[in-house]
Amino acid sequence: MNRPIRRPGGRSADVRRRVLDAVVTQLVDHGYDGLSIDTVAASCGVHRTTVYRRWRDVGGLLADVLAEAAGDDWRPADTGTLDGDLAALNREVFAALTGDPPITTALIAASFRSARAAEALRAFWADRYDRCAVIVARAAGRSEIPAGTDARRLLVAATAPLYHELVLLRTGPDEGLADRAAADTAVAARAGAFVTGVVSPG
Amino acid sequence: MNRPIRRPGGRSADVRRRVLDAVVTQLVDHGYDGLSIDTVAASCGVHRTTVYRRWRDVGGLLADVLAEAAGDDWRPADTGTLDGDLAALNREVFAALTGDPPITTALIAASFRSARAAEALRAFWADRYDRCAVIVARAAGRSEIPAGTDARRLLVAATAPLYHELVLLRTGPDEGLADRAAADTAVAARAGAFVTGVVSPG
């Protein structure tokens, strides 16, 4: 067993970068079944003991891929209208779900194999929806939509049709999908859907 | 190699029933990795040659589970209002996605492993959404919603938040989720969302 010397931060960050890039490449190219400490270590030239000590197993590697993705400074676009903000958000989701290489769909597929990946993906999305709450606050501030509109409920309504169509129903990518779901949700919000504690009029 | 004698219809249907029940049990109890022609044959007492000849592989078994499920005479409830019809539908989806044993979520997970299962699940859902189009036609007939409302777009808006929250985001089951998503979608439809070819007012 090697007894690795402690590395300075830059070297450690570089190792993490190489390992996580290798995880994504292996996952996209060979699927979850092609992922292992050994294949990742071999493909990025980092000693398997280093990978094992820091990430332990495939679940740890996948969780760190998502933790790193969550560590960015992404913020939703501020276009000046609810329609515009939701359309911009949905176009980003659409691009992620139809991207090549299909990193996002590969991570979603992996979340059905690894409880740690599932938990990391849940945390990633929770943080993304939290960051998007400002879209709803801005729209309420402009009186586009009623005060008391539930941000997460609105944001899930806008984005869920994309995940449903592209990931579960596996319909072919339809260019208008992102904008339609955004516009439909904006109509709903202006009409008073998504308001907490209010039962809609029948 | 056995040369099986051709069985009458009743016996053949009985074999199919036993095999498909065993597929579902194996899938729920042991996951996709626990599924094989051998484990299924052994668990239901049907000769493995019979299973192999009729279903060929795990993909064929899963596709037939979904084909059999699609062969029922299910129709959406007719409650007299769009809100009621969507709430009834969403409660059925919610029950399926939170059911114990978790058959639906196990089939969704399997669809990420097997292209045949993915295609069968896609066909199953396409048929279900087709059957539900009558909900939208009835609402338009009662002038609850505009003529030209796109049935699939409305139905996906109503149901997608349930799949997103329960299957992908893996939030805990929230009793109000089904009714809220139904009511939000009915508000949207009455306000003119989901109308084909119309860009919503900004």
TrEMBL record, chains A, B:
Pfam families: TetR_C_11, TetR_N
Alphabetical list of InterPro entries matching this protein: Homeodomain-like_sf, HTH-type_TetR-like_transc_reg, HTH_TetR, Tet_transcr_reg_TetR-rel_C_sf, TetR_C
Limits of the HTH tetR-type domain: 13-73
Organism of derivation: Actinoplanes campanulatus
Residues within the DNA-binding region(s): 36-55
PANTHER family recorded: HTH-TYPE TRANSCRIPTIONAL REGULATOR RUTR (PTHR30055), TETR-FAMILY TRANSCRIPTIONAL REGULATOR (PTHR30055:SF148)
One GO molecular-function entry: DNA-binding transcription factor activity
SUPFAM superfamilies reported in the protein's UniProt record: Homeodomain-like (SSF46689), Tetracyclin repressor-like, C-terminal domain (SSF48498)
Alphabetically ordered keywords of this record: DNA-binding, Transcription, Transcription regulation
PROSITE patterns associated with the record: HTH_TETR_2
Nucleotide-binding listed as a keyword: no
Name the UniProt record assigns to this protein: AcrR family transcriptional regulator
Coiled-coil ranges per UniProt: none
